[in-house]
Structure formats: C-alpha cells, structure tokens
Amino acid sequence: MTKFEKTSSFTRRSVLLGGGALVVSIGAAISLETVLSISAAYAQGAKPPLTPDQLSSYIAVNADGSVSAFFGKMDMGHGLHVAIGQMVAEELDVPFRNVKVIMGDTATSVNQGGASGSTGIQLGGKQMRMAAAEARRVLVEMAAGLLSTPVDKLNVNDGVVSAADDTSKRISYAQMIGGKYFNVQLDWNKQYGNPLYAPGKAQPKNPKDHKIVGQPIKREDVAPKVFAIENFVTDIKVPGMVHGRMIRPAVAGSEPVKVDEASIKDIPGAKVVWDKGFLGVVADKEWNAIQAAEKLKVEWSQTQPPFPEQATLYDHIRKATVRKREIEKQNGNVDDAFKTAAKVIEAEYEWPFQSHASMGPACALVEIKDGNVTCWSGTQKSHFVQNGLAATLQMPVDKVRVIFTAGPGSYGRNDADDCAMDAAVLAKAVGKPVRLQYMRDQGTGWDPKGPASIHKARAALDASGKVVAYEFTSKGFSRVDVDTNGGKPQDTLAGQTLGVALKSGDGFGVPAESYAFDNKRMGWETIPPLLDRASPLRSAHLRDPVGPQIHFASESFIDEVAAAVNADPIEFRLRYIKEPRDVAVIKAAAEKANWDTRPSPRKDQTGAKVSGRGIAYSQRNGTRVAVIAEVDIDRASGKIFARKFTVAHDCGQIINPDGLVKCIEGNIVQGVSRTLWEEVTFDPKAVTSVDWVSYPILDITETPAEVNVVLINHPELPPTGAGEPSIRPVAAAIANAIFDATGVRIRRVPFSPDRVKAALS
Amino acid sequence: MNQRFTLNVNGQTHTVDADPDMPLLYALRNDVGLNNPHFGCGLAQCGACTVHVDGQPTRSCVTPLSAVGQGKIVTLAGLGTPEKPHPLQTAYVEEQVPQCGYCINGWLMTAAAFLRDKKKPSEAEIKDALSGLKCRCGTHISILKAVKRAAEMMG
C-alpha cells in the first residue's frame, strides 16, 4: 500500500504557474524564485523518512484535497479516531469529513505508544493537534508567497486559503501540496511511545475559536460493522494461508516430551509445530486445525502443580516475600501521628485475578514472504509487536510490518500480542502464511491477567474525629509481571515456551486523590509470580491497570472512616479534599443524584429488599471522576442490582461529548461486571475459568436502569484521558451503597450472590 | 468423511464439501466467504456466531452441518443493507451502539427474531429475550436503547 492513493500528475512548477481556476499572482512584492524556494522547502515528491521529526509522518494532503492523519495509536472501540479527526480538522481548517485517520499501521505511522493508559487524546491527540497546526502554518506561508499577500491578511476555510481583502485571490491546500509530501522538520523530543512529542513552530488555536472540537460527531465505522461490511482481524485472508491452533498444557508449566504426529495423520493437511514448550498445529482448513489440536496425543512433562489452592490466594499474597516495596506519596510523620491517635480504624480489602475475557479469543495473521513479514493484529501496540516479531523471527525491524486491524475487543494487554508471536512462529515453521485464532478456553484461561491484590488501610483519628494520619498499602502481583506489550520475546508465551526467561517487572500504584491529611503515606509491595514461565496467571495491564482494585479499597475505606465519625460520606470527603476540580465533580454528582445528606448506613429499612447509595471518587492522570451508585439488594438471595449510576466527569477540554458519554457508559457497565461477577478461578494445576460459564460477566438483565453522566468541560485546559478513569471508582461506589443499605461492609470482590448472602447472614 | 451440503444462505445457494460434524459457522466463514458470524466461544455461550435458520436464531458455532438440512440461513449481511436496512440496523447506527462490535451478530439476529414475533415489548421482555448474549465492552445501555427504538419503528 502506498501512502497516497493517487500520485500527483502535475509538477510543482505547473501548479505554481497556474492553470485552470488557479490564480497565481506574482507581483513585485515577491519573486518567482522566492515562491519556488518556499514551496520547495515545505513540499517534495519523495517521502521523507518515517521518523517522528517529520511532519509527513503525521499529516498528508492528498491530491483530491482529503487529509490523511497517520496515527501511531489506535481506537479500541471508544471512537478515538473521531476525536483525533476532529482535532486535526480543527487545526487545519478543513471539513471533518475530509480527514481520514489511519491508525496503528507501522508502515505509515511512528510509534506513539499504541492504545495505552487512556492517552489517545491526552498525548496522541496533543501531537496530532500540533502537527496539524504546523501543517496549516506552512500551507498558509506557502499561500502567502503564491498569493503575494502577507500571512496575517489570509484566511483559511475548508482547506482553501484566500486573501481577506480579495477572496478571488485563493488557493487550496490540494493545489499547493496535494499528493506531495510535507518536507518540514519538527522539534522532536527524541522519545518514542506515549511520551513522543514533536511540535512545529505553530501554536494551536485558541479554544475559543474551536468549531469542530467539542462537537458530538458520530462514528463512521458503526454502519460498516452493523451491515457486516467491515473486516475484523479475524476476517483477513491471504492466498496460500493455513489455519493454526495452539495447544496448552493441562498443568501450567509442563512441556511436551512426546508428540504423536501419527495421532492426527487422518486429518487432511494437519501438521505439528513443536519446539521445546511451543506446540501448535496447522491445517489448510480451520475445522481441521481445530480437530488436530483436539486429537493430537501429547505426553507432557511431570511438573509440580504450580498454584496454591484458590481459597488460600489472599493468604499467599499476605505471606509472600515482598520483591519490591515503594512509598509513592508521603507527607508529615505518619508513625508519630498514629501514636497520638484517640482512635485507629483499620481495614483490609481483597481483589481477585481478572481476565480480559475479550469477546472473542485473539487472532493474528502472519505472512513471511520475500524477506518481509506482514502481520495483521488486533494488538493495542502494533509498533511494539513489530519489535517482538523482529526479535522472535530474527529479522530486521524494518522488514516487519504490523497492520492494526480491529480485533474481538481489547482492554489492555490481552491475548493479542501473544497470538501474533505464536502465529509468526507457526508461519516460519511451515513456510506459509498462518492465521491463528485461539480457542475460548485459551482466550479466558491463558490471557495475561489483571493482578490479584490485598490492600491495607488505616486511619488515626483525634478526639474530635479528625483524621490526623492515614496509611494505605497495596500488596499484590505486579501489573507488569509481563510487560504492557509483546515487544520482547520474554514477555510473550511464544518466547517463554521457546526458552526465553521471563524478566518479571515490578509495578503497582497508589490511590489518586487529593485528601489533605496532615500525615499520609501511600505505597505498594509486589510479590513474585506464581510461575516463572508461560503462566496462565501471569499478570499485566487490564483496563485501568490496578486502578479498580486500589480505589475499591481506598474509597471503601474513606467511607468506613466517615461512618466511624457518623458523617455523611460526601460531607466527610469535602472536609479533606482541597483540589477544586475534585470538589466540583463530587458536588456535580451529588446535585445530579439528589444526594440525601446523612450518615450511612440507612436506618429506616426492614425486610428482604433494601436499597442504598454510595459515592466514590478518584483522579487519573489529570481526569477526575465522581460516581454515585444506587443499588437494590435482595437479602434472601444476596443478589445485587446496581440500579442507577450518576457520574460526574472532568477530563479537561472535551473533544467529542457524545463519544465521551458512550465511553463512560461502557466503563460503568464493565466496572459493574467486574465488581459483581468477575473472578478468575484456578486450582493447583491450571486456570479453571475457561469460558463464559466459568468466568461470568454482567448479563443484559442486570444492566443498570440508568447511567446519568454529567460532563464538566474545561475548554481552556488540555484534554486528559477518558478511556479508563470512570471504571476506577465503580466498585467502591457499589460497596459503599451496599453498606448504606445493610450496614454490612463487603471487602472482597466480586460481590457474587453467595458472598453477599454469606456476609449479610 | 466429507459430504456435500447445499446451503441456502441469504437467498443464494452454496455447495460445501465438508465434515458433517463441522459447525455451520466455519462453512459460512471459510467456504461461503461470509465474515459476519464471528467465532466467540464455540460453545453457544456468547452469541457472536448467531444466524437465523428458518427464522430461528441459531448459534452456528455448535450447529453441525448435518443438522442444517434444507434450512434457510440468514446472516447479519442478509438482514438488511445500507440501502434497505433492517430497523435494528438503523437503530444501531442512530444509537451508535457498538464499541469493538464483535458481538453484534448475537444481539441483532436475536433481537430481529424477537421483534418480528413480539410487537411493543416491554423493557423486561426485551432484556429477557436477549439474556445470555455477551458484550464485553459494556454497551448494554445502548443496546437496550437501540432495541427499544427499533421496536417502536416496527410498530
């Protein structure tokens, strides 16, 4: 695929010297040579290198006047591409519909970090905005020469530059540069990934002048999905392609010692690919590959079952050796303050392993041909997968192209990157393009998991009930036991099964809030993984990595302290929260929900069915969210109905309010699911959550009846993330509502009916 | 052993040579060349593979070819087109329902059969009819709005 669908059919000189409707006025003020030199400086026919310091790496004006925006991140379903298109169209002064955002293809974009940490707009959009502003600046400067009109006397409308005092003097972007490449150097900060930033000389527009940013523009990719005319990664086919399936051990950590290829000899075209712990099959037909994977007789190495009994998981975490301890935030003298306490409140909370359990198991297609590798993947990080494939296949990075193609859902480091590497190993072994899709048990049972953890909180109160000291410590499996991406073989199942040693990283986090306690300490401890190779319980990033678990604990605990001093949960929070935007989201949610100011729990309910309300709030990298949950509880069955949510959300400048609301609704519903139902089960040998029965998620019959979203817009502030922040406070808001309704505090997720019933009895 | 099957899919006839035990899903995707039914679980637990067989929502991932017989198969692509959309497709676009969109065959094909047979359903009836289908992105609120909107359109 070339960068432009149509090549320019006219030379630079022919454009400049006019023809057709193009009016080129070259007066005394500026010489032809000067005009040509300006254009030559900004545009050229040959493509500059695809490096972060080139404007052409982000923006191109095509011959037909359309604009291509090459984006090194990608949309995972929230409509990010719409927002990016809005930001680019706004800065360039072109119609929104003229901008096509091309996402996550390593052949056309630089590594902006992929889908990562809700930074699509916050960091990715920031860069695209600056690139588009710079493109407009140089185009207007080109036009100034061509129209012999100073820059400050020019206007731009819909991609046409015209003189303010004589609109007959006009030239379009397409006429100036359409089909050619920008040749403009940017001031790149020499960073790749999320921190990449490469502004030009231009300043972006004043938000007061925004006409496209802030508008509720709809997604164009919905109709193709609804009419079944858009390809998912699962739908890509290439000539000569065969189908692959992987085979995983029944006891995690064991490896094949004997593989009986004769056991699948009756299956047409079936072949085994076996190397150390890596075992897969391919066949010409998908059904045959599935049959071969099921029927292949394999003798596995005898391995000590690596996992504890699930019932002892939290004890394991409590007793496990701390691998890394970090205090992230500290002020005052916490230990001394606790010694002076009139009363100390303590609590501990528990969060299980959770699975991405994407709608379909991951799929990838890898073709190795003529020394080049092409991979279609639903990965969140195609540039990292490019590196991982190059390392796995021992090929130069520039011979590997990864084309992001929307996959069956993604909420972090799911099984997509592992699948791409497995497909590559299979493709290399059989010398044919391989389309690999995992099976359901592998999608749920073998994806990298959100880490299980425990969280200890304690607060010291003085005689008046004031919090004088606060300490919060998480202990759990690392959020980066395997990294956020498959960029290195050590972080993939293919690499680990082929013998590359895991280099388990350490990372967790602390509550993100602004409670101004005089003495405060927040930190975390990570523990080693349960299995150091190819583990189905390896832990990594799952939507809002460690955010839901940390804030389930911290915001439940704040509620416990409020109850201990008989204070209303919101009034108590506002005693300590000093950050004005935090106060604003809490007040906005309270007002919208008609919050009844009183201490929890309610004391006016009897009978089997009770109701309650709870609040939780948090920050996330500049975004602030307050969530009020209203829940109904059936004491007899233990079933929770999370009936109504009120969400106040401040992510700075809003790019697309409708897209933002949809994004928040999805976060709330997924948050309810993870709070009420989700827990990866396992036994000493293996993960036993392998499908939707053994890993239940929220059913449509349990959908909240209402999710009311209050958007707080700050056009004057840079936009921050929205992809994940609103899932963060959901669990605590529900827990606090359960407490309000029943007076019972549930400190372990999920709040499944059995657990709630037991807690209430 | 492979057998020859004649499938009627979206009004067209296709001949497929395949294992009688092979689920219909793979015939539709790989032999007929229709991408819209998706593999989600292979266990009839999620709905991503749903098609109509003689008007009945059917999980094609567990329906062996041998069980299809002369049944008339309709997939999402056969439900409507951009030029002549099914009301549910119109409503899905209007409500901007999907996020990743991988699940939509289940919801649309199940809801289409339900709304054909049940006029003016209550919200509880809609939820009950769609119970068991999965959406991992959490678009349930928009799904319900769209199905209600389509129900109104279908009178």
Short description:
The complex is a heterodimer of chains A (761) and B (155). Chain A is an alpha+beta fold and 761 residues long.
Folded structure, characterized:
The complex is a heterodimer of chains A (761) and B (155). In chain A, 27% of the residues lie in helices and 22% in strands. By secondary structure, chain A is α+β, with helices and mostly antiparallel strands. In chain A, the strands form seven sheets. Chain A has a seven-stranded mixed sheet, sandwiched between helices. In chain A, α2 (32-42) packs antiparallel against α4 (120-147). Residues 1-28 of chain A have low confidence and may be disordered. Chain B is of the alpha+beta class and 155 residues long. Chain B has two domains: 3-79, Beta-grasp domain (Ubiquitin-like (UB roll), Roll); 87-153, [2Fe-2S]-binding domain (DNA polymerase, domain 1). Chain B has helices at 24-31, 76-79, 87-95, 104-117, 123-130, 140-153; strands spanning 3-9, 12-18, 50-53, 56-59, 72-74. Chain B is globular, with a radius of gyration of 15 Å. Classes of the chains: A alpha+beta (761), B alpha+beta (155). Chains A and B meet through α6, α7 and α17 of A and α1, α3, α4, α5 and α6 of B.
What structural keywords apply?
heterodimer, A: 761 residues, Aldehyde Oxidoreductase, domain 4, 3 domains, 7-stranded mixed β-sheet, 5-stranded mixed β-sheet, 19 helices, 26 strands, disordered N terminus, B: 155 residues, alpha+beta, DNA polymerase, domain 1
Helix-strand blueprint:
The complex is a heterodimer of chains A (761) and B (155).
Chain A: H1 12-16, H2 32-42, E1 43-44, E2 59-61, E3 67-71, H3 80-92, E4 99-103, H4 120-147, E5 154-157, E6 160-163, E7 166-172, H5 173-177, E8 181-182, H6 222-226, E9 242-246, E10 256-260, E11 271-275, E12 278-283, H7 286-295, E13 297-300, H8 313-319, E14 324-331, H9 334-339, E15 343-351, E16 363-369, E17 372-377, H10 382-393, E18 400-404, H11 416-430, E19 434-437, H12 440-445, E20 453-461, E21 467-477, H13 493-497, E22 520-527, H14 547-564, H15 569-576, H16 580-592, E23 609-620, E24 623-634, E25 639-650, H17 657-676, E26 706-712, H18 730-742, H19 753-760
Parallel strand pairs in A: 3-4, 9-19, 17-18, 21-22, 25-26
Antiparallel strand pairs in A: 1-8, 2-3, 5-6, 6-7, 9-12, 10-13, 11-12, 14-22, 15-20, 16-17, 16-19, 20-21, 23-24, 24-25
Chain B: E1 3-9, E2 12-18, H1 24-31, E3 50-53, E4 56-59, E5 72-74, H2 76-79, H3 87-95, H4 104-117, H5 123-130, H6 140-153
Parallel strand pairs in B: 1-5
Antiparallel strand pairs in B: 1-2, 3-4, 3-5
Helix pairs in contact in B: 3-6
